Amino acid sequence: MSEYMHPEVLVETDWVAQHLSDPKVRVVESDEDILLYDVGHVPGSIKIDWHNDLNDPLRRDYLDADRFAALLSAKGIANDTTVVFYGDKNNWWACYALWVFKLFGHQDARIMNGGRKKWIDEQRELSKTVPSYPKTVYKAPARDDKTIRAFREDVLAHLEKKLPLVDVRSPGEYSGELLHMADYPQEGAMRGGHIPGAKSIPWAKAVQENGTFKSADDLKQLYQPQGITSDKDIIAYCRIGERSSHTWFVLTYLLGYPKVRNYDGSWTEWGNLVNVPIEK
Amino acid sequence: MMDRQEQLDFILDHYENPRHKGSLPEAEAMVEGGNPGCGDIVKMYLKVDPKTNQATVMFEGEGCTISQASASYLAEEVSGKTLDEILQIDHNTLMDALGREIVEQRTRCATLSLDTLRAAIRKREREQMLKS
To answer: What's the alpha-carbon Rg for chain B, to the nearest Å?
Structure first.
């Protein structure tokens, strides 16, 4: 059985439990449900909200370097801190937050395998105490929007070159039957369908029933037969970029693909763009 | 006037200790609402006492913290009121009661229970008309 290519970026709940008091480790909860952290969280963990903390308030974009540095300083995260993300929804937002941290080159960012659900299923301690940590001096470089992030122009260029795209949404969204996941508001895009040529590999196929990631062998079996291989330049997308962050994490760290980008504009942008092609 | 922490505690208390949660077998109307931002589902059950005109409201559901806390609060708040009194409650009233600062990013989650309850009131009215 093969190993993950970068096993160091994935930590188990046991590891987290053993490092709750480690000053070099900061555990971060990132959720879709904005009050879950307040219901109870991993003791000592802090909250980073994808919307309030990581997005620019006026522009559909992320924080700039100064504000990112200020955020991390305030949260007690230093440049050499090991940041471990976890959250609800199978770690979608945890992977999204990790991806944003990587846009700013944060060195040591990891995911707690199985996320919030696994921690709770194992009946581990939850706390309502919101900790505060000494402010740090965090130095952030300018955001790198080239290496792991794709914009619509990149996707158009990708299409022209017939390079692989992965649509990680549900089959109903891929076919155009739905504009969002089932049971979510069917809004956000004028049209349903997918980017021409994109392969449908829903994010959920990368996880087991208990929310942990599948083995490296199973993951290879999932992506390689669809032509999503490590020698290619790959762009993943979903609806707003959170589920595709999950797939980006799998391809980049668990399978070690060197050139994977997340198109965070995703279907809410592509499905509304004038004069671009779609398929149903 | 509650401060932010008190408001948060108020919401979490309704989420963790929901009031009026469960089905109402003798309900005159039941409506299921869904689809706000987090994939939430709320079923609102409504019955009106013909002698007092007072409503009894129960709910069932699953979903995010705010949607479920809102349903609990609303069911408790409106039970014992008349339908005219319930219809006086609008989105703003509900959001203020829950804590606007906390729920304003999730207005659809916060108001799902009210929209669903109003749908139940309309359904009951239609059915009463058909019977008369």
So the answer is: 14
Q: Where are the alpha helices (DSSP H) in chain A?
A: 13-18, 36-39, 65-74, 92-103, 115-121, 152-160, 171-175, 216-223, 242-249, 266-270
Reported ipTM: 0.82
Burial of A108 (0-12, 13-18, 19+ CB in 10 A): middle
Inspect the interface and report whether the beta carbons of A38 and B37 lie closer than 8 Å. Answer: no
Residue partners of A98: CB distance under 8 A and separation at least 6: A83, A85, A109, A110, A111, A245, A249
Question: Can you tell me the distance from the alpha carbon of B106 to that of B117, in angstroms, rounded to the nearest whole number?
Answer: 18
* B64 chain-A contacts, CB cut-off 8 A: 32-36
Q: How far is CA A29 from CA A87, A88, A102, B28, B72, in A?
A: 5, 8, 17, 43, 26
Q: Which residue of chain A is at minimal alpha-carbon distance from B17? A: A39
Nearest CA among A19, A26, A73, A32 for reference residue A45:
A26
Kindly report, residue by residue over A124-160, the tens digit of the pLDDT: 999 999 999 999 999 999 999 999 999 999 999 999 9
Choose the catalytic residue: A84, A112, A140, A238: A238
Whether B105 sits inside 8 A of A33 (CB atoms) is: no
Do residue A32 and residue B35 have CB atoms under 8 angstroms apart?
no
Task: Compute the nearest-CA separation of B96 from chain A (Å).
Answer: 17
pLDDT(A30) > 60: yes
Residues of B in contact with A52 (CB under 8 A): 105
Using 50, 70 and 90 to split pLDDT, how confident is the model at A184? low
Q: What is the pLDDT of residues B39-75, one digit of tens each?
A: 789 999 999 999 999 999 999 999 999 999 999 999 9
Task: Return all residues near A155 (Cβ < 8 A) that are at least 6 apart.
Answer: A165, A195, A235, A237, A263, A270
By C-alpha distance, the chain B residue nearest A130 is B5
Q: Where are the alpha helices (DSSP H) in B1-132?
A: 4-16, 65-78, 83-86, 91-98, 100-103, 107-131
Annotated active-site residue A95? The verdict is no
Give the Cα separation of A147 and A145 in Å (integer).
6
SS3 of A181, please? Answer: coil
Token readout for A177 is 């039957």
Measure CA A96 to chain center.
3
Q: What is the pTM of this model?
A: 0.91
Q: Are strands B41-48 and B29-34 parallel, antiparallel or unpaired?
A: antiparallel
